[in-house]
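TA notes, week 10

Several of you asked for a full example with nothing omitted. So below is the full record: structure tokens for the whole chain, then the designed sequence directly under it. When grading your own attempts, check the secondary structure regions first.
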């Protein structure tokens, strides 16, 4: 574990349990960023002339990491930009199923547009609630976060396959921001049609980078309108010649931030993703057991067979201040205290947290 933690200097000064808010950037990514900007400073347009080749390299790295094709990937500054582009391309008055209290970047862009909206509850019976809502409301689209930001409830991906099998015309649009980077994800084999994510949390890539993945079958139902010069190949190109995914990439692309995403993915891959993700599962299991014994979890978390590594603990402002004063970085969320564990955390940190909570 020490050979991993040495790449994250921030961990030496605190117990960092706040990746659900902001992931810690590893030193190799920051060092790469410095070299990138030095090259830009010293060589200006000569360096920038290589940016299209670099962007395609980044796109391939993202595609390989999530078992998608390059043609399914668009690089975007954040999830919100990508999802608004998708929503602007959907025909009006379609019926969209949402989850109550999902992340605002999921709810707000849908609720301000001309869609028919229905909802399902997030509790220990999440999948049952979704299935019932689909049967009752017959939505065209189900839009959701894979992992919930407030309490860490994680949707069953096998359930999504069954849902898609039962309702093949149901378009599945997902936010992977609180999920990607915690376990192996295979876009090709997954039932999700459209997946977007910001990469500043569990992918530890810093701000200003993310991506959208869209399967070819979903493109028949989405008609994005966003456009800019970079969407075309040449100055002589016509706007109507723009390929589907390039609608998500108008204007000049930022090789610094998208390059940071690539470097963060390569860093995790170099450490061995299976090992990292197994460690997250182990930490989550240990934390859930300890929190359960202290009576700090509600039934939505306790009764789920599988849970992410995000937990919302029963606690007030006084407890939050106590944790903060003892060097534990976490977040007040949803009337409780949210803690989250990534591969750079340790079992000792969980044990110290439990001692304080006792």
């Amino acid at each position: 574990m020490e050979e991993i933690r040495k790449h994250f200097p921030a961990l030496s000064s605190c117990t960092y349990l706040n990746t659900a808010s902001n992931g810690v950037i590893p030193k190799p990514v920051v060092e790469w960023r410095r070299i990138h900007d030095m090259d830009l400073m010293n060589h200006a347009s000569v360096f920038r002339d290589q940016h299209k080749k670099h962007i395609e390299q980044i796109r391939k790295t993202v595609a390989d990491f999530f078992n998608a094709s390059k043609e399914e990937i668009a690089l975007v500054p954040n999830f919100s930009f990508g999802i608004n582009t998708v929503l602007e391309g959907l025909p009006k008055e379609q019926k969209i199923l949402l989850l109550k209290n999902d992340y605002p970047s999921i709810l707000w862009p849908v609720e301000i547009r001309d869609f028919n909206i229905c909802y399902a509850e997030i509790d220990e019976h999440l999948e049952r609630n979704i299935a019932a809502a689909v049967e009752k409301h017959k939505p065209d689209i189900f839009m959701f976060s894979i992992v919930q930001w407030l309490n860490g409830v994680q949707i069953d991906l096998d359930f999504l396959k069954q849902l898609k099998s039962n309702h093949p015309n149901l378009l599945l649009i997902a936010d992977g921001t609180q999920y990607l980077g915690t376990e192996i994800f295979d876009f090709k084999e997954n039932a999700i049609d459209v997946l977007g994510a910001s990469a500043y949390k569990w992918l530890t890539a810093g701000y200003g980078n993310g991506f959208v993945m869209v399967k070819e079958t979903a493109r028949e139902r989405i008609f994005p309108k966003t456009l800019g010069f970079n969407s075309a190949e040449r100055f002589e190109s016509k706007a109507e010649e723009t390929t589907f995914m390039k609608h998500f990439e108008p204007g000049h692309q930022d090789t610094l931030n998208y390059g940071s995403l690539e470097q963060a993915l390569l860093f995790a891959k170099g450490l061995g993703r299976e090992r990292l993700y197994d460690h997250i599962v182990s930490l989550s299991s240990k934390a859930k057991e300890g929190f359960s014994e202290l009576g700090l979890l509600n039934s939505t978390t306790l009764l789920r067979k599988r849970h992410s590594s995000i937990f919302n603990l029963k606690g007030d402002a006084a407890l939050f201040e106590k944790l903060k004063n003892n060097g534990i970085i976490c977040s007040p969320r949803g009337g409780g205290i949210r803690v989250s564990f990534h591969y750079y955390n340790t079992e000792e940190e969980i044990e110290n947290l439990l001692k304080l909570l006792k």
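The chain has a mean pLDDT of 95. Use that as a sanity check on your answer.
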